[in-house]
Write a structure and sequence with these properties.
mainly alpha; 75 residues; extended
């Protein structure tokens, strides 16, 4: 995702970020329990597993998303 951001406009093609999908498929990390998946809480499970890496990312990214969603919907 960082590489895609750095190369946006420089690469002619379609880029897709897949997050942790490959790690799940490779068995490197475990999925959240079924009840958390059904409750859309898999992000929280990941945060508990790796808080040092994900806390700031989630705080900043989610805050930006909420801000832009509120601003765009109220404009």
């Amino acid at each position: 995702e960082v590489w895609m951001s750095d190369h946006q406009g420089k690469v002619k093609g379609f880029m897709v970020g897949v997050g942790a999908a490959f790690d799940y498929l490779a068995g490197n990390i475990k999925r959240a329990p079924q009840w958390m998946q059904k409750g859309n809480l898999e992000w929280f499970y990941r945060l508990i597993q790796d808080p040092r890496r994900l806390f700031i990312r989630y705080l900043i990214t989610n805050s930006k998303f909420i801000w832009h969603t509120l601003v765009k919907n109220n404009a």
